[in-house]
Structure to design on (468 residues):
């Protein structure tokens, strides 16, 4: 009896390989907006620090100024409106991003999704473990364990814009996917660990509003004048339920359809995200930063960051925990799956991106406020530690990325090259016969032009000199 021939092993999947063209185009547009928003975020953070440390009384007065309908339970401070209201827009965009990743992006294929999901989970678990170990050894409060678990994609991209590193699309996509998964688990942490008292009447009302929102979407009802008022009602009910109001933004974002039907150039989710993302990146998040990043940076406060176990835990969690967690999780995932690192990149590149993910700003500040609610001094010190930890992570990652900037620029230029002016990068057309015909015609045109110039130059050099 013949021995059955064993099946050939399945080919190894590339990790950080070339993105499909639609994914690359989407990523380019999304990151362009996030990068601009990240620069605005940096400006807002610096403005908050300058304002709080020069005219501290006015900063405090504005931040604590209350307005809003008290009868609806919404008589909130400016800082509160920024954290609970404006950040709902940010989390709405995060919800749409997550939905798109699940149905059309990197998270659609469970095998491909394993890497960023494992990396993101390890990139949250290790910082939390680092914080907990530092506070237990130092006899501090473990209540802020979740503060160093978040990555701020806008701030990270702003750092990339400042240091001028042309990261290849695959590395940028990996960073974005990490941040999306990171946001998902940060949302779950906020919902599960920072909800104390629940008003079930308001919560049922919020769920009823979400059900109406879902039905309107499924029946293709259109018009911002329908959805915006309904979204505000859902947000208000969610806030009054006791669950953090940003959860409403995520839930509505996840309900949008992010797959394209026949004849559609863009899905509804893509269209709405394209409209709302600039509002989130350019207004909502910077305003939140303006009223959350204003911490006192006196010499004593800065020194305290490295002496108090809670603040030291945040710094080490962001700088050390994030880097080790993401890099280690990625390495282990590739080690035990059939993924193989892109031959054009090295593990040093993954390490640099892991260090860049240690920039935890927006969500870290929010969790810090929730974790130490009522203790203003501790909140101020935790915010200072988030800023310092993010700054250290930015410097470390910037140095690491600069060491490979020439390699990145070469890869980036190769991805962007479009010699035949077709509007599609040449690297995506190399298997297209029509591309080779266009390139042959282009090269023939260039050769003919060179021959013509050579003939003109030869004729000019053969003419006798003119008489004096």
């Amino acid at each position: 009896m013949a021995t059955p021939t064993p099946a050939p092993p399945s080919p190894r999947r590339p990790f950080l390989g070339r993105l499909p063209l639609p994914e690359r185009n989407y990523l380019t547009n999304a990151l362009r907006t996030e990068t601009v928003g990240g620069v605005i975020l940096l400006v807002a953070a610096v403005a908050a620090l300058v304002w709080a440390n020069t005219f501290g009384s006015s900063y405090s007065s504005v931040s604590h100024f209350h307005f809003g309908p008290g009868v609806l339970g919404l008589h909130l401070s400016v800082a509160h409106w920024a954290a609970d209201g404006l950040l709902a827009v940010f989390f709405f965009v995060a919800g749409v991003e997550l939905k798109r990743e699940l149905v059309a992006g990197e998270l659609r294929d469970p095998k491909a999704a394993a890497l960023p999901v494992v990396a993101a989970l390890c990139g949250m678990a290790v910082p939390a473990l680092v914080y907990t170990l530092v506070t237990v050894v130092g006899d501090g409060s473990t209540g802020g364990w979740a503060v160093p678990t978040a990555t701020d994609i806008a701030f990270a991209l702003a750092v990339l814009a400042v240091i001028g590193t042309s990261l290849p699309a695959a590395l940028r996509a990996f960073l974005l996917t990490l941040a999306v998964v990171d946001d998902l688990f940060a949302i779950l942490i906020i919902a599960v660990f920072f909800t104390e008292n629940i008003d079930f009447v308001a919560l049922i009302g919020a769920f009823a509003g979400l059900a109406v929102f879902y039905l309107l979407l499924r029946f293709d009802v259109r018009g911002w004048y329908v959805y915006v008022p309904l979204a505000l009602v859902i947000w208000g009910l969610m806030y009054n339920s006791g669950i953090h109001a940003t959860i409403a933004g995520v839930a509505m974002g996840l309900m949008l359809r992010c797959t394209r039907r026949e004849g559609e150039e863009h899905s509804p989710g893509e269209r709405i995200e394209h409209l709302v993302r600039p509002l989130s990146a350019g207004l909502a998040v910077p305003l939140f930063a303006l009223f959350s990043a204003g911490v006192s940076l006196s010499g004593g406060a800065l020194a305290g960051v490295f002496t108090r176990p809670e603040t030291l835990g945040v710094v080490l969690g962001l700088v050390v925990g994030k880097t080790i967690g993401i890099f280690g999780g990625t390495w282990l995932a590739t080690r035990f799956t059939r993924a193989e690192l892109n031959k054009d990149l090295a593990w040093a590149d993954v390490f640099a991106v892991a260090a860049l993910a240690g920039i935890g700003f927006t969500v870290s500040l929010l969790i810090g406020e929730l974790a130490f609610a009522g203790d203003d001094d501790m909140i101020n010190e935790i915010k200072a530690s988030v800023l310092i930890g993010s700054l250290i992570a930015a410097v470390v990652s910037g140095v690491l990325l600069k060491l490979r900037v020439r390699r990145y620029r070469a890869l980036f230029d190769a991805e962007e090259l479009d010699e035949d002016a077709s509007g599609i990068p040449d690297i995506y057309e190399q298997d297209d016969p029509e591309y080779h015909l266009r390139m042959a015609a282009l090269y023939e045109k260039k050769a003919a032009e060179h021959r013509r110039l050579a003939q003109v130059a030869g004729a000019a050099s053969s003419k006798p000199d003119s008489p004096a």
